[in-house]
Amino acid sequence: MRFKRVFITILALLLALGMAACSSGGGGNSNGADGGSNPSGGAGGDANSGNSGDSGNAGGSGSDGAVTIIVLNEGAVGIGVGVVSDLLVEKKKGLMEDETLTPRVKEEDFNYEPGKTVNPHLFGYLYQQIINEKMKEKNIVLKTEDWGWGEPLIQKQTAGFLAKNIPDIIVGETQMPGFAQQGLLEPFPDDMADYIRENIAPAAWKPMEYDGKIYGFAAQPGVSSLFWNKRLVREAGLDPDKAPETWEEFAANLRAVTEAGKGKFYGGGVYAGPNFGGYLRFGTLLVINGGGFADDQGYPVFNSDANVETVTFLRELNGYHPPGLMVNTNEGTYFDAFKKEQIAYLIDGPWRAAESAALGIEYGMATIPLSPDGQPGNITIGAAFHAVPKDAKNKEAAFEYIRAMYSEEIQQLIADTGVRSPVLKSVAENGDYQAKHPEMYQHYLAMAGNVQGLPTFAKENSKVWQIFGDAVAKAIMTKGDVRQILDDAQKSAETAVK
């Protein structure tokens, strides 16, 4: 039991450090953590590391006929910058010698077998080892660069596209669909796209589909679920094992917990700050209720009837939070409230499960409640989409790398961590996986169906997003007419995109 608890704790810590940048990108003002918006987490840290000027010259064929491809680092599985074969040797040595790791890494830990418990410190190493071996079989040499995450990454990628000097594989989150719409990415080969549509959960590729073509893939994306603190729910006289299924039930539970808390704890609900951390969370409610952010051409649709209904519901939920918490510009403050057991319910990505267990919180996890006329839907969160630029020097080799990302070996490794869900149906729908990881299996099911990514607006993307975020915050925090507030935001956004 002690090892299991330590194991879960480390997974949560690694998740916070390596996967937490999932709502940065796209130009938002997100400064929190917790699978949210830490720009240093998702793609490897220092925004100044890596040299974009070298990317176009490092690829190509070596004297032995091998093709070297440049891949941008993803922090969740990153092992450094350089030739991956060399990095693996250095990483193994460092892991073996690191006395601060608990549990300590042993030689036998590196002998990973599918279905075997993985020392969480080794996830990135094993991931890269599997990918590297597959590339060696194709006579491909992997070399990584680190361009940071969030705005620094977007700026470097934009400059690389303009200079036609870009790595063979780039990675990002909210900015990636926009790159596809702008014609900057290479569509996946038809046979590859057909396989993905048939065998891979939509959350891994659907947000990167444009005009019938697929332009990107995420090996371990997330979607949001409803989480709750069972102790607080029990104190409110509610069944801690029963999830609310409708918005009406959800609001009733939040009200009951808030009343029981008497100012010591609150019902909570969903983070709705004016940043990408907020859009990714409360955006799921827009999708469920038939609303959204933009049409297929990237033009705003802020003041739809469905959005007015949803934002009105958000205003109600605000009353079940400590004053100012729901729209706090620092999303980390919101998630800290859940970790400190100050709010009972929240909507967040799958990492919340491991982290709650590590903190000793007795938690529940379920699908997000539906509005009266709503349908299941979700927004990808923490999805590091990999894509091949139009100007990549080694496109065929780059696509081999992406194929390796959805291979059974990589997807089984992801399944064996129990923190994220695999996206390959043959792994996720295996009875063993469902039995070992019932909550993550439910998360896998949520990655099917109407799963969307955040859109990129036709023009002035950052400005338009901020117009919407400010309008929602105003609607939540004031008594102004919600429709009028969204009408005003729509007019301002339409002016910006003209």
From TrEMBL:
Residues 27-59 are annotated as: Disordered. Residues 27-47 have a biased composition (Gly residues). Residues 1-23 form the signal peptide. Keywords: Signal, Transport. Transmembrane segments: none annotated. InterPro entries: SBP (IPR006059). Pfam families: SBP_bac_1 (PF01547). Belongs to the bacterial solute-binding protein 1 family. This is Extracellular solute-binding protein, family 1, Sugar ABC transporter substrate-binding protein.
